[in-house]
Amino acid sequence: MKAIILTENGDIDKLVLKEIDKPVIKADEVLIKTKAIGINPVDTFVRKDEAYVKRKLLIAPGEQMILGWDVSGTVVEAGKDVTEFKVGDEVFGMVKFPGHAKAYAEYVAAPESHLALKPANISHTEAAAATLAALTAWQALVTNAKVKSGDKVLIHSAAGGVGHYAVQIAKYFGAYVIGTGSGASEEFILAQGADEFINYGKEKFEDNVQDADIVIDGLFGDHILRSIDAVKRGGRLVSLIAFFEGEIAEKAKAKGVQTYRLAVESNGDDMKQIADMLKEGSLKSYISDVFSFEDIPAAHEMVESGKTRGKIVIEL
Ligand SMILES: NC(=O)c1ccc[n+]([C@@H]2O[C@H](COP(=O)([O-])OP(=O)(O)OC[C@H]3O[C@@H](n4cnc5c(N)ncnc54)[C@H](OP(=O)(O)O)[C@@H]3O)[C@@H](O)[C@H]2O)c1
């Protein structure tokens, strides 16, 4: 089968197309014939950085590195302990995260506990998009922050992969949603359902919002410190990037803010909740660009710009 191997950590030229053997499934796994693959910022972090490889990929000795976790496709083989899925089923999910899922390949071995059935009314491309990014939004808002009707929720990077799902999920739970983005993203963010938009190029979000029940922050630098100013006393702050230590932890504690440093994890039950929302149309994937399998390096370059809208997906 075709796979994109990461020959060593580095630039996009280290992503090389190769012919390798199909994976062999374990008893609790299915073999998926890949139809679409989602690309995320973490793919590029892991590509560049050996420390990320060790943390996220958990590579066995002698194994070839293959990036990718987000997959949608057809089950072509099922292990003897698999009960939920059968050959011919269309499935999707974020597989083995953290771990070595090897999703940049024509066939992917996936534990059944990481998957959901793809709703028939959405394409594999839309499904592959709604995996790591949608799960992150779900686990941030629902698992961690326990969003509820009437909550005021500030979502940073609301035009991005995680952000556009987060806006829709928060609205689904009845929250009042404020999204941040550049001026060019205003229309898009409001179209996802946000009640208010803040242009980070024109104003400081913390001047505008100081009483959020929940803030979701995935930006680098002092952004998280500023986000503490935007949460109300006793509110919830979910960080996708910064860790709550040192000055950040102290500032949050002084304000009684409940802090969560999310590390998204594969979870078939959460995937099924996302599948239900996709099926009923309360969650939609926005896909700004589609690349071919051979063009995965170009997709990495685009994600690294930090300016992509919604999701970027690979179609096979
Ligand atoms: N911890 C975890 O488990 C986890 C999981 C998933 C993602 N993450 C992290 O969360 C972050 C978001 O992920 P993603 O997949 O959504 O990334 P993404 O799709 O690449 O996000 C791109 C978006 O960020 C927006 N943006 C850039 N700078 C901004 C700013 N200063 N204020 C507001 N918006 C800004 C851009 O909007 P404009 O074009 O309008 O500027 C763009 O639409 C990444 O850093 C990612 O690594 C962490």
UniProtKB/TrEMBL annotation:
Annotated signal peptide: none
One family name in Pfam for this protein: ADH_zinc_N_2
Enzyme class label: oxidoreductase
Domain Enoyl reductase (ER), residue spans: 10-314
Matching PROSITE patterns: QOR_ZETA_CRYSTAL
Coiled-coil segments on the chain, per record: none
Keyword Transferase: no
Entry EC no(s): 1.-.-.-
Gene3D superfamilies registered for this protein in UniProt: Medium-chain alcohol dehydrogenases, catalytic domain, NAD(P)-binding Rossmann-like Domain
Keyword line: Oxidoreductase
Keyword Oxidoreductase: yes
SUPFAM superfamilies: GroES-like, NAD(P)-binding Rossmann-fold domains
Name of the protein in question: NADP-dependent oxidoreductase
Organism from which the protein derives: Mucilaginibacter sabulilitoris
